[in-house]
Every structure is written in structure tokens, then in C-alpha cells.
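Hello again, I could really use a second opinion on something today. I've been staring at a protein lately and its backbone has me curious. Can you walk me through what the C-alpha cells say about the fold? Take your time with it, there's no hurry, and the full record follows here:
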Amino acid sequence: MSTVGAVVPSLGLSPLGAEALAALRHELAPLRGALVWVHQGDASSAPALDQPGERRIDLPHPVGFARAANAGLAALAEVEWVALVNDDCRVEPGWLAALLSALAERPRAAAAQGRIVQLERPDRLDGRGLAWNRWHEAVQLGHGAREDGTPAAAEEVFGVSATAALFRRAALDQVARRGAAVFDPRLGSYYEDADLALRLRAGGWSAWSVAAARAAHAGSATAGRRPAARWAAIRGNRWAVVAGWQGRRLPLALPRLVSRDLIDLVRALARGDGAAAAGVLGGWARAVVLLPRFVRLGAPRPPLAAVDRFRVVSAR
């Protein structure tokens, strides 16, 4: 059994799929790493996996990122280090080695990601880690900032994006939900990595951004092209994840949650963006369904100070 493996959740929609697979194979080969490709929907668009240690899981219909990722992670239950890579993300040479080194040097590090640039604008960052802003939104650190390739030391971040990251299996096992679910299947897609980051922090684990590990991301190719539904899922899941994190302090967080959505709704209506406006309203409808399953009593987990340490001032 290999000590390292990778999971690729896919809908078969990414135009970058073949390149993403080839790049990941190149990273895994020196370590004889395992690869699990989780394909959702029509299997005719799934890649042929014919190399040692590769396996494809075919799901008959789309089930969302969380369930697809969990299926892949379950198939690699024995590996010490497991990567998650979207099929619209191409990792660069040395990506895996840099992340492995960063985690091995830090016994309480649960996860690491690199600097991910935008595929169509490689001089601009897609992100280098997750943080929270004043509106209780999970945000990609550095998104849209200029990326000049200047070397930088590894830095601690609140959490990592599941776009392309490496995880310590022991940490995932510690914080897994009932049924060994690493990602919360109730969330489907979006905010599932922010929820995992909160649980890892509550468990005493850290996360790191490693500049030497680089990748390029096409952006939302795996998720499809339904903007209103996508925004509704993002906004509704945000409410659910914040409710689970805040516990009995949720009433104090409500003004920020509501204000952010109202501001975005007004702005969407003013510019005639029906999809964005529908996304806000759809997010509220989704939150009504999800909140009873996530609201809880008790203190925030992790404590607010653990989040505030990494909180950023957003331009939004």
C-alpha cells in the first residue's frame, strides 16, 4: 500500500481534465502513489485509468463535491497522505513534494496547499489559502492579486481550499463526522472545505500555504454552468456552516449574515443581474432547509479567537 494517494472528484465537464490527470500522474509516479478518480454521471466522458495504483469510481448521477470526495477518500483509507485535486486544476512539477515536505516538518499540520493561479490569467492568484472576513464569509486569500513568482516562505493560514491540497490522514480521521464522512454530505458542494477547516482548527490542527507548490485553476469547470444555483448553494451553505461554528452565539452573527446578503441583493438588482439576485433568494431558501440540521447550543467551535487570528479585511 502506498503512503500517498490522490482523489479527483469530477463531473466530466472540465476542458482541462486530460492535462490535470497527466500532471497529477507525474507527481504521484516517483512515490508510487495511488489515484482514485470519482466520476459523476455519464461514464462516456470519464478517463481511462490504466496505470498501476489507479482506480475509477463511477457514480450514476451527480452527488456533489462532498459525497464524491468522501467516496474517493474511503477508497484510500490506508494512505498516510491524501491529496484532493479538482479536475479543472493542473498542478505543476514539484507540487506534491513541496506539500509533503511542509506537512512532514510540522507534526500538528493537518493540511497544506500551494499558490494557485488563474489558468487564463497566470499573473493573477486564484488563492493561497482560506480565511474569514468580517461578514462571516470564507474567502480565498490573495484572490485576484498579482502573482509575480517571487519565492516566499510557507505561512500558516486558517484552512486550505479543496481545489488542490494535501491532507494528513490522521487529522481527517480525527475530525470525520458520523459514518467516517470527512466532508459534510449535507452541504453538497461549496463551503465543505471551510467547514472542514473549522473542524480541524477545533481539533487543534493547523494549515499551511506553501509557495513552492504551484497549480493553475480553470475555475468552476467541475461545478457546471448554472450561476443562480451555484450562488444559492454558496450562500445557503455559508449560513449552515456559520451556524454550526457559532453555536449559541449565532444570534450575534445574524446581523452580519443578513447585511451581506442584502447588500449583494441590492447591488445585483441595480445592475440587472438576475442570476445573482436569484442566488441570494435561493440561498435564503436553502438556509431555511439546512439551518435546523446545523444550529446547536454550546460555545463556538473553534473559539472565535482562533478564527479572528486569521480574519482578513475584504474589499467586498
